[in-house]
Amino acid sequence: MTDLTPISFAATDLDAIATRKGRVAVVVTPDGKLEQSARRVNRLTKGAVQRFVDSDGFAKLKPGEVMSMAWPAGMEATAVDVICLARNHSVEDARKAGAALGKLRGSGDMLLAVDGARRVQEIAFGLAMRDYAFTPHKTDAKDADGAVVVMCSRPEVATEAAAPLLAIAEGTFMTRDLVNEPANVLTTTEFADRLVEMEALGLKVEVLDEDALAKFGMRTLLSVGQGSDSPSKVVVMQWNGGAEGDAPLALIGKGVVFDTGGISLKPAGGMEDMTMDMGGAGVVAGTMRALARRKAKANVVGLVGLVENMPSGNATRPGDVVTSMKGDTVEIINTDAEGRLVLCDVMWYAQERFEPAGMIDLATLTGAIIIGLGHENAGVFSNDDTLCNAFLKAAGNEGEGAWRMPLGQAYDDMLKSRIADMKNIGGRPAGSVTAAQFLQRFVKPGTPWIHLDIAGVASVKSDTALAPKGATGWGVMALSRLVADNFES
Ligand code: BES
Ligand code: MN
Ligand code: ZN
User: Fold this and answer.
1) FRET label pair with 428: which of 26, 114, 422, 460, CA 20 to 30 Å apart?
2) How far is the CA of 275 from the centre of ligand 3 (A)?
3) Ligand 1 proximity of 338 Cβ (cutoff 6 Å)
4) Could you give the CA distance from residue 242 to residue 108 in angstroms, rounded to a whole number?
5) Active-site pick, 326, 340, 423, 481
6) What is the pLDDT of residues 68-120, one digit of tens each?
7) What is the mean pLDDT of the chain?
8) 277 CA distance to ligand 2 middle (Å)
9) Is 340 annotated in the active site?
10) Hey, CA dihedral for 194, 196, 199, 200, is it positive or negative?
11) Does the pLDDT at position 54 exceed 90?
12) CB burial of residue 318 (10 Å; 0-12, 13-18, 19+)
């Protein structure tokens, strides 16, 4: 797994700043007040920081932005990074500043001198999140080196406050690695193996093979994977950090390791992007990792359906009718609408086995959600205002875009089949809603449920606030916060 940048916290030592190699970052408020360490650097550089603060360049900086001065005289540093941050900065600005530093660090050392320990951990978190590169397949990639030292007034307090955030960064990195990994490497078996490794963190992990899935009657899930040489699997991860007997929150992920469309084959252009079609399962895995790492005081189960959607002589045909674990029959009109066929069986299994207090599924489910919301927001569908609003609040606090979409009988009616209980597609109009409507047929009355369509946000073609282009890890922060604010005792 891609490692986090090593970040440690130490007491401020103004003398050490002069002899420090690598980059040195200091804080100046938007109205031009230099923090103590910034004043120290200013003296060392014979007023260079103050001259910069008095310039037009600084006037253009917005809170959370960083400007660098290369090879400062009077110091051994390669650069001084001036962070523009108000005393009462928002969490978002602090993370943004950290992310800017993470981008600048490269593979060198960095000293971050921040007065008044307040939210030092948010800067460190932003830095850790942005300092990510997916390099396992670059033969010229250098071993990561360099470390970050954060100098602040109360390093013990900062170390403790940063720990849960760094757990979330680690979970996010796991999600990004999984989503970025190509499908010849991340087969269903490799995916399951990587999840089993998390037993070392105190998670209980079980892998259900095809025989077990057949025994449970998960025929719609198996119908998706039957054209592939990679065996379909369901992996169940349990984190029992809460009170014994407390009903868990269930997280369900779509894990299509590659989606060719099956017999309803996708066009060639852009098909390579379908390596990210396991994004929902990736977020579930990363969230379980974060919860285990920060020892969340809650019971949470994560279930992922791992399959590959391939055409072959053994693949599902359009027109086939299959029976779900629930017992409802599905007429498969389009084998490319496969995610819902995977999720419906895993959702049903999760409810039968765990009777969860709430259920959240995540899936790169529809291209239509990208048409509707672009890459800014995930589509949120829910049968329960309380759980839904709690999630929207958590996502909002973490700066992860999420927008609620409708559900309703008229959409459900679009799934009627002539020969089976339902079709697997509802036609072109409202494609994301009919997909959600399909899933809702597999939610038991009384189970609060959210469906997150993350097709637009799981992987993007340009840098975001906290991630370089590629897999974002969208959702790990929001889900971890949802658990912290609503499910922890
Ligand atoms: N995995 C795709 C959805 C997708 C598209 C994810 C683009 C990420 C980026 C999904 O399985 C799919 O193929 N959906 C079809 C549904 C249609 C056949 C009803 C789609 O969106 O076109
Ligand atoms: Mn598909
Ligand atoms: Zn898919």
Assistant:
1) 460
2) 10
3) yes
4) 41
5) 340
6) 999 999 999 999 999 999 988 899 999 999 999 999 998 899 999 987 666 79
7) 97
8) 8
9) yes
10) negative
11) yes
12) middle
- Regarding the beta carbon of 367 and ligand 1, being less than 6 Å apart is answered yes
pLDDT in tens, 361-413: 999 999 999 999 999 999 999 999 999 999 999 999 999 999 999 999 999 99
CA 305-311-316 angle, 5° bins:
70
> Is 163 part of a structural domain of the chain?
no
Identity at 227, one-letter amino acid code: G
Structural domain ending residue among the three candidates 155, 187, 219: 155
**Do 15 and 91 belong to one domain?**
yes
Q: Is the CB of 364 under 6 A from ligand 1?
A: yes
* Statement to judge: residues 117 and 174 lie in one domain: no
pLDDT higher than threshold 90 for residue 145: no
Where a domain ends, among 120, 155, 190? 155
| Ligand 1 atom at minimum distance from 309 CA | 11
List pLDDT tens digits, range 273-287: 999 999 999 999 999
b vs e for 102-126, b when ≥16 Cβ sit within 10 Å of the residue's Cβ? bebbeeebbbbbbbebbbbbbbbbb
| Ligand 1 near 334 CB (within 6 A) | yes
What residue numbers bound the domain in which 21 lies?
7-155
The CATH code of the domain that includes 255 is 3.40.630.10
Ion ligand 2: residues, CB within 5 A, are: 259, 336, 338
pTM: 0.98
Asked if residue 431 has its Cβ within 6 Å of ligand 1, the reply is: yes
Q: At 145, which CATH number?
A: 3.40.220.10
